[in-house]
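assembly run, all chains below
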Amino acid sequence: MTKTITDVICPFCGTLCDDVEVVVSDDGKKLLEVANACVIGTEKFLHSQSADRVTKPRLRQADGSWKDISYDEAADYTAKMLAGAKKPLMYGWSSTNCEAQSVGNEIAEIAKACCDNTAAVCHGTTLIAVQDIGLPTCTLGEVKNRADRVIFWGCNPAHAHPRHMSRYSIFPRGFFTGKGQMSRKLVVVDPRCTDTSKMADVHLQIEQGRDYELLNALRVALKGEWLPDSVAGIPAEKIREVADILKSGRFGIIFFGMGVTQSLSKNHNIDEAIALTKDLNEYTKYSIMPMRGHYNVTGSGEVFAWQFGFPYSVDLTRGFARYNPGDSSSIDLLTRGEVDAMFTIGSDPGAHFPISAVKGIAKVDSVCIDPHLTPTSGVSKLHVPVAFNGVECGGNCYRMDNVPIDCRKVVEPPEGMLTDEQFLVMVRDRLRKLKGAA
Amino acid sequence: METVTITMKNAPALYLEADTISTDAFAGKNAAQIAELPVFEGNNPSTLGKYFEISGNAGATSADTKIVVKGDVKKVKYLGFKMTAGEMVIEGSTDQYVGAWMNGGKILVKGDVAAFAATAMKGGELTIEGNAGNYLGAAYRGDWRGMSGGKILVKGNAGSDTGMYMLGGEIVINGDSEVHVMTHAEGGKVVIKGNAKSKLGGQMVEGTIIVFGSIDVMMPGYKPNGEVELEVDGTKARFAHFIGDMGERHKKKKGVVVYGNLYKKI
Amino acid sequence: MSEYIIKNGHVFDPVQGIKGDKLDIAIKDGKIVDKVGSGAKVIDAKDKTVMAGAVEIHAHVAGPKVNLGRIYRPEDKLFSCTPTKGMERMGSGASIPTTFKTGYEYAKMGFGVAMEAAMPPLFSRHVHEEIRDTPIIDEGAFPVFGNNWFVLEYLKNQEIENTAAYIAWMLNVTKGYAVKVVNPGGTEAWGWGLNCLTVNDPVPYFDITPAEIVKGLMEANEYLGLPHSMHIHPNNLGNPGCYETTLDTMRLAEGIKANNKFGREQVLHLTHSQFHSYKGTNWGDFESGAKEITDYVNKNKNITIDTGNVTLDETTTMTADGPFEHHLTGLNHLKWANCDVELETAAGVVPYIYSPNISVCAIQWAIGLEIPLMMKDPMRCYITTDHPNAGPFTRYPRVYKWLMSEKARKQQIDSFKHKDKVLSQTGIGALDREISLYELAQMTRAGPAKSLGLASMVGGLKPGMDADVAIYNINPDKPVANPDDIEKAFSRCAAFIKSGVQVVSNGEIVSNGHKRTLWVNVKAKENPQVARDIAEKFVKYYSMTQNNYEALGHHFVPNPYAIEVDATN
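ok done. output:
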């Protein structure tokens, strides 16, 4: 007999779908089938079942080979590394639960470390913009129930957040949007033709790196002021037409992704997009929302904020919290050679950071806590495999709209494997002893 | 005025946070007392004397104190942090936060500086003979109260985000500027004698930008407003005048809407 | 648990009518007792003031909008972050402190209980995570109901029983404490960028008025017999002339009687009344309506209020009154955050500087003090700053100073740039009342505890009650030489015992205590219709499934303390 578990949360992207169904074996040890999830999410669940999975911590030897060690030895190594470092960087946190993040923060506080999450390479710029100008936003259910204008700017949910459009943004029939897709006008701004732009009522194929200018032009158009003949490759006439489309909606939403957060102007693009949203609220109702990537990057920011006061790039080295991306942000710390130890959990900077920063990781003592084999585990001195969060253990996570959803455990991890939180507690207790902390 | 000379003798392995290297922290102290001032290398507390050779005693007040910084201080942060009076000369290049939150006095850097120089500056003078990094004279994260007074001169080039949220004071860049100048500013003036790239004066409520060289791409929110003759830093020339950012809110003063001004030399 | 005896202090306890008598307070097993053994630890309170732990009835201290405030205001923390110290975790934030700092600061001032005033139900799990990470103090959270689609639909047809069943379900799944109402109907209207500024403005689409929502929720609250009454932030907050809307709102309580077993007498709690007591037609002729509001409340015993004192600081405003925050950003042009929450509510956040040089701010300051000074019964008026809206809660000692010393008020008034305008637009200059220590204990302990339905548990020092005892460096036998001494004494208590454990000594944290989450567990009659409606709304309109909605499990509410309500009869 098999068991079907319903209302399962998918630990892949910030869409955090919570209607997944998983079929497991009677003894709860094998995950057999996944329903309702997208292909990426399904793969995430099934990947936990792969036969070649690393189940024991491994320490890099002088000759470059790996040696299996126990979790106790791994925790000792990690605690000693953190205790001895002058400026350790504890990075990642976006693919683990809030309880583990919380223990991680205790460790960072005792070790006087820098701590950062993957916003550093995705929506950290969004956070900077929010700090500069604010954020009129809403939950995804508001979009489903009310939105008649949907703008995707620099993002491609058809590929990156596959169920976003069917669950929340384009297709669902909500309370005031009974005609589903027919109730909505879709505007896509992207220099490329994508599977998302193909569905759009209007696709603004913008010149790369000129999002700031086009957003500015839309604000000017809303106010009916003078515009040059074309901005960012888009004729003024078209800009005015789109401004009218935006203005004529009853409830609009701008979703944006890394096409604007990580291209020229970065935080300023978002700043201007938020300003546009604010302006539109003079005429009708508008919200704006970042398409957050990792399924719990949002949660990491929340936990950092309520415990330290800042959402990412937090520097605790002086014994109190400080924050200033450019100084306290991971890539800057690594490329500038500011850190002497690297602790990675729940992310893969080896794959996502620029090569100059990855070289920085390779130069220092390093620990990587991750269920997978990744480029980061490859350059780290110690690799600690753990249970898959959201599959083999539960814990709270935050969706891209900051809604918390408690992940479920659906299957047992391989025997003897620890969760992130369990391993971190071992490290914390050891570190306390080493540092003589209360 | 008394002069204290500090010379780097043991360079830090990482970076040194030396917010105590300022006339205010030195004032009233002799060389031995200055050597005991706290500095940090990462989470490791140390003293100034471990890294620097210190000679000379400070004056009784910061106004009576001059600091000369010698040796390689490229990995030292916060020189002249919150300085209120006196003088500081940095013989070479240095790292982030030079003159950050400074309120008075003079700082001269003979080399380059990294990011966040003169963050939220209120007064005084900062001269950089080399190049400046990003966020020169900008506000701290999230704060709408940026540079409100004082003068910054960069003889080389400046990075991006100069004068973000600027409220007052003046920044002169003899060389070229990277993108984003005076974003969100509500006052103050930035002069770029070389070339500018793009995104000048975005979301600017009030303030003045003067460019002598070229501008790659204008912000669409800047509307042509004729030509004017201006005298800038002793140079008289004709400038094309633009007002903006037309997408942004603007205040009314005596019934007249006040825009930001952008002048480009013809 | 250890035993304590607090000796020779001047005790102020409105629950027992003790007005500064020298008495010993005995503590055993977390409770106040008649006597303890000779081995009890002695705390000398000679020449000091002894009161029960203070009770915060309304503050924004945990949850999504509070954290959004933290996230988007790094400048609120610049140069003011505090290091790890003994058993204290790092802290930061002036107007929006981190959770750790929040717990420590309340404890250092002698607070044992704090209520989070607005919990968006969809985010209850977030609220509880922050409450969990706030040390020492007991906390509860009020889910918001005034713009909830279920409530709007049930009350459109006057279905009180269904509304009550829904409230019972909601308190249970969100581990909530009370029925909170914010800008009834107006926040739903804000879903379309609109608002309801009077109690009679219809809510778009839902065909109901704020008056009907407020009345219906009061009736449902009494139908269930909850410990606290409906707790309301009325329509039209913060606008000149809003006192009339406030009076209209309070009149809705006429004829409704409290029904509960907790000793609560009111059916409506008007929160941050300062923001709702404005006369005038614009910011130029803006004036105080404190007299009109307090006259009404003085006459109507089924209402309690809290103040919402402006503390003249830079702070961060945050409220479920979404349209108000949009209005505010239009006035001060500072960064605006907003979050509309599906089917339930919204929230906005805007920084604000209450400058003593701006006449409106100074008048707001005066109104906040006029209200408690004009209230005849201190048991029905409680001191708040609507933290952090009118000022951070860490400023309570300063507010106490202004209330307890006419001299301190005069000094402040004299320092205002627009002193004459403050005196002409408010009645503050004519008020010579000075709040006594006994009255302060009523306004900060016994009163709010009674209003919350916690009178048998906290707010007093009667044997059998929880042993929350605060000792302050104030000698009531000696006249106060300098009003600033009042502020200093209440800022850092000499000792604070929370649930029988000493957590503060000489103003320093000495234990993280054992904090609890207070919530109200209502046993209600089965109501299949409401159960069906809930299931249907989740399938059709919510963005998450019903089975994932509840704040369930140890990591959300590790130390629950349920107040049981039986509403099955």
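The longest helix of chain A spans residues 420-435.

Chain A touches chain B through 46 residues (CB under 8 Å).

not gonna interpret more than that til we talk
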